[in-house]
Amino acid sequence: MNAHVGFVGLGHMGGPMAAHLVKAGYRVRGFDLAPEARAAAAEAGVQVVGAAPEAAAGADVVITMLPVGRHVLSVYQEEGLLAAAAPGTLFIDCSTIDVADARAAHEAAVRAGHRALDAPVSGGVVGAEAATLTFMVGGGAEDLPQAEPLLAAMGRKVVHCGPPGAGQAAKICNNMIVGISMIAVSEAFVLAESLGLSHEALYDVASTSSGQCWALTVNCPVPGPVPTSPANHGYRPGFAAPLMAKDLGLAASAARAGGVNAELGLRAAELYAEFAQGAGAHEDFSGIVRVIREGENT
Ligand code: NAD
């Protein structure tokens, strides 16, 4: 008999993730504040309930996929999710949130008599729809066996990163690399243009040399060399600039809190915050190349 799963947050990511659990045979009770998210989930076979705590009642595992840390903490505590669950329930938070908030959520769950894992994802909406997400998990190794079959139904890879908060730490460190490297690749293409070097020539050299990286070979910020990259499709996301700005903001505040000398990470957070509020509001994060080239952010 497959487990009962409560699922709170049925948006762009949570919606398809919950749908994959239904397909895998889990009985999923879900809730979202947004009526359109509830309707789409019901269509996919999720039993939609009227409030978050109803999703936890009778569940073996409760998954949350919410925007930021304060939503997770509020749903867990003020909105009564933890209180509604049977003692010993496993809570898995898949949202990308601050490491300190992830630890606070873990502590709140344990105080309420439960078990908890942070399990943020990479792979984006495409990965959620195709069930090819990577899960980065923080928490007790003894809780992994119960989580793994569910995560496997929604993704392709599960990495246990360490104690509570370690999944979130891995996520923001990885995205700091990607954010900085996208700026580096973009600056290199713009420099190449000013030197009369073609995009193809730089791509052919860097993609087979030490400049090789995901920002170049998968999400290439200029049209041409990688036909599937958002640059060839009007910079439609992909991975939206506001999400990159959010993740870099989390990395920057963690770096400041830890006294880490992450100069490029802090600068990348500033550049993406500006871009996300301007021209990049609805664009893939690789669109930052145009701001670098033109110096305009409108
Ligand atoms: P989204 O805004 O589409 O979905 C979040 C959902 O949470 C919304 O439908 C909203 O109505 C719901 N919600 C908010 N507060 C609620 C509450 N109190 N009770 C019930 N529902 C509530 O966002 P998303 O793109 O699905 O992202 C979710 C998380 O996944 C974020 O932390 C994001 O950073 C992370 N993430 C997103 C992507 C991506 O490409 N979209 C990739 C990796 C990680």
UniProtKB/TrEMBL annotation:
Domain 3-hydroxyisobutyrate dehydrogenase-like NAD-binding: 165-292
Every 6-phosphogluconate dehydrogenase NADP-binding domain range: 5-162
InterPro entries recorded: 3-OH-isobutyrate_DH-rel_CS, 6-PGluconate_DH-like_C_sf, 6PGD_dom2, 6PGDH_NADP-bd, HIBADH, HIBADH-like_NADP-bd, HIBADH-related, NAD(P)-bd_dom_sf
Keywords (A to Z) from UniProt: Branched-chain amino acid catabolism, NAD, Oxidoreductase
Catalytic activities: 3-hydroxy-2-methylpropanoate + NAD(+) = 2-methyl-3-oxopropanoate + NADH + H(+)
Pfam families, alphabetized: NAD_binding_11, NAD_binding_2
Pathway annotation: Amino-acid degradation; L-valine degradation
Coiled-coil stretches noted in the UniProt entry, renumbered to this chain: none
PROSITE patterns, per the entry: 3_HYDROXYISOBUT_DH
UniProt GO MF annotations: 3-hydroxyisobutyrate dehydrogenase activity
Annotated family: Belongs to the HIBADH-related family.
Record's protein name: 3-hydroxyisobutyrate dehydrogenase
Provenance organism: Streptomyces mangrovi
Source lineage: Bacteria, Bacillati, Actinomycetota, Actinomycetes, Kitasatosporales
